Automatic annotation (TrEMBL):
UniProt-listed GO biological process terms: ergothioneine biosynthetic process
UniProtKB keywords: Glutamine amidotransferase
Protein name: Ergothioneine biosynthesis protein EgtC
Pfam families: GATase_4 (PF13230)
Protein's organism: Phormidesmis priestleyi Ana
């Protein structure tokens, strides 16, 4: 399974989270601590970010090589300044080719998407059923072969066929729809998803059979150990960070299973039930 990362807050350069921490996303690409199904995330990577005024569609950089082999990445990460970005390092599952089209993030209009998880025996189970339900726009959005991109396409389907639907509601419906399909097919599905629109993060952690893949939330960290002060001079105030594994020491909270969480620029946390809530909650308001 992949490792994913999401940030929302004051402008920073992505290297502060992707490359610099002691357990950065780069380190997680070759030495993850909480993966059960693989030992490396070396089958490509990508990250996407927004311009300061959010007027343009997100910018996305992807590479089918392992993150540790990309010599351009450090300079690019230092050059970019953004209030929100998503990143992914990939561990390809069986029958999933290692190629650029299968690297994340995926994008639809102003929204970006990253996923960590799987649909068990995807080609033999939900590959065709998902495709048969997609509207034309969602169907044509698929460029690769992964289960991740088909989950993304189903989300695009809801956004296209329900004009004005809130992004969190669309993700809730997508999760519930996939859960129902997986139950009918008697197949295991696991997914951690983070979405960004530049001024908002929306996420879900879900597994229909076992404990969901690891996902953590760090909300407005204000204090760091003294030896981090030079490495993290801004302490990431007034920010939210999602990560598959904690990047550094801090008050990382396990993401509640079975809930869609939405966080806006005011950092207020709102949850939307998927109808399959099985975990604990963190401080938030709830939408029913």
């Amino acid at each position: 399974m992949c490792r994913i990362l999401g940030y929302l807050g004051p402008p920073i350069s992505p290297d502060q989270l992707v490359l610099n921490p002691e357990h950065s996303l780069l380190v997680q690409s070759y030495q993850p601590k909480e993966m059960k199904s693989a030992i490396l995330n070396g089958d490509g990577f990508g990250f996407g970010w927004y311009a300061p005024d959010l007027a343009e569609k997100p910018f996305i950089y992807r590479n089918p090589l392992p993150m540790w082999n990309d010599q351009n990445l450090p300079d690019l990460c230092r050059y970019v300044q953004t209030t929100s970005f998503l990143a992914n390092v990939r561990s390809a599952t069986t029958q999933m080719p290692v190629e650029l089209g299968n690297c994340q993030p995926f994008a639809y209009q102003q929204m970006m998407f990253v996923h960590n998880g799987l649909i068990e025996n995807f080609y033999d189970t939900l590959y065709r059923p998902i495709r048969e339900q997609l509207c034309d726009v969602a169907y044509r959005s698929i460029k690769g072969q992964t289960d991740s991109e088909h989950i993304f396409a189903l989300l695009v389907h809801y956004l296209e066929t329900h004009p004005g639907i809130d992004l969190a509601d669309a993700l809730s419906k997508t999760t519930a729809h996939l859960a129902a399909m997986a139950q009918k097919a008697e197949v295991h599905i696991a997914m951690n998803i983070i979405l960004s629109t530049g001024d908002r993060l929306v996420a879900v952690r879900f597994d229909n059979q076992k404990k969901a893949p690891s996902l953590y939330l760090l909300n407005s960290p204000s204090q760091f150990p003294r030896h981090y002060h030079s490495q993290f001079p801004h302490h990431f105030p007034k920010s939210v960070i999602f990560a598959s594994e904690p990047l550094f020491q801090g008050d990382w909270q396990p993401y509640p299973e079975g809930e869609v969480i939405s966080i806006g620029s005011d950092l207020k946390i709102t949850t939307h039930s998927t109808g399959h809530s099985i975990g604990h909650s963190i401080g938030h308001s709830t939408v029913t």
